[in-house]
Amino acid sequence: MLNSFYDPQKSGVQYLEDLACGYWHSQVIFTAIELELFNYIGTEQKTLTEISQHYTSNENAMERFLDTLVVLGLLVRYEAYYYNSQLASAYLIKDKALYQGDSILWRKALYANWQDLKETLICGKRLHYIPNEDEEILKQRTKKYIKAMDCIAKSKAKEITKFFEGVHLGGTLLDVGAGSGAFSLAFLEDFSTLKATLFDLSSVIAITKENLADTQPNISYHQGNILEDWQLQTEKFHIILLSNILHAYSEKEVEHILNQAAKWIDPKGFIIIHDFFLEHYSLKARLSDLNMMVNTYNGKVFEGDWVCKLLKKLGFYDEGLLPLESDTALIIASKSQELLKKVHRDQKQYLMLKLKKLGFRNLQLLSTEDVAFTEVAAVKCQFGCQHYGLGKCPPNSLPIEKTKKLLKEFKYALLLEGEPPTKGFQKKILKAEKEAYQQGFYKAFSLWAGPCSLCSQCEPKSSCPQARPSMEGCGIDVFQTVKNLTGNLETVKNKNDYVKYFGLLLLE
Has UniProt tagged this entry with the keyword Glycosyltransferase (predicted)? Predict the structure, then answer.
């Protein structure tokens, strides 16, 4: 969920080299899709000679290209034959339901303005705008955009409807900035009594009508500009969906959109906002924000907290960000708190978003069965640590067998990564435990790194409400536990090397 791309303990020259070569990956997949290579191979097998002859390409050059696709996981090579990988078969063949090729090539179309990032930083806004074009060129451009967004929408839609499993959703849905209508179609498929209105610019609605070709009797259309007053001429809606809308606009425009949504939502309805948010999938969110800067008039990626505050001012309740398994998240709001309680959410993922705000560098969810133990930990405490016998350190801590028994009371744990100073890290651990308890994990208990550093003096046999045992002091093999999850933990070799701290938050 968080940024696992940069590791301060391991990232060096190679990290910088990989950053600089990032566009190499993109160009390979752009070229493969433009060649329709995955379509050509299809469900069959092709030799290098067959592929080279099909594209009238140099055989040596093609082999180097194909073998790169193998390393990227998009093709499989067995002896003299190339096959589509499982990933390519599912998403990169045109007739597949979740085909992503149009979306990927749309990313290539955005690349030109990224070349002007330095100048954009100086100017403060996008430099190049779409020139006035004749109607047919503009229509084709809009078609490409709708197809690209449809690819993404289809892959996300089912993730969103899952939040409403078991909830009776009937009445009317307003899909704002509907594009292809993919999100509405997913809701209509899962909730048969719904009727949807697709709301978008007239140029978009014309193409969507053409694509759907009157195959959806429960869909109607409204042409308009969402930045103006919504002249819908109908009753209020039970669901208003804003998917990938907010990041295309400025703060003032977002406030207008939410005000209009508040005006048209039924008092017992849901406003569903699906978008990038800075708190979730941080690296992609930040890059998406830059993409908005170079490729839109005034779009930006917002903090979910800011959006929630706007909704609160309008009289709505919400449960904060609800992360999807991918790079986007939801905010589901309603004027009825009872209605919100019916929405499904992953309590652990929600807790992780809350804990990120405390300043942990990374959080990993694991089963308590994946926590590794070692008898060596206690030996190292006794023979090698100046804190042995002091405060809550061994032998005043939990022995290894009691710790193993304790972990059987819990099903999950969050591995929390931080850094010195010790006192600051331990305070964060206590705040994390408190947050977990307040979120309903009533058994929540934490183990942290190192000897307790909260007080200057500590009586070994005294009862302290803040003291927690260290992971290593309880016999936990911290290195092996971390390596089992991420593989990213190194011993400290030099005085100035980056040090990682880890805590364990136990959850029932």
Answer: no
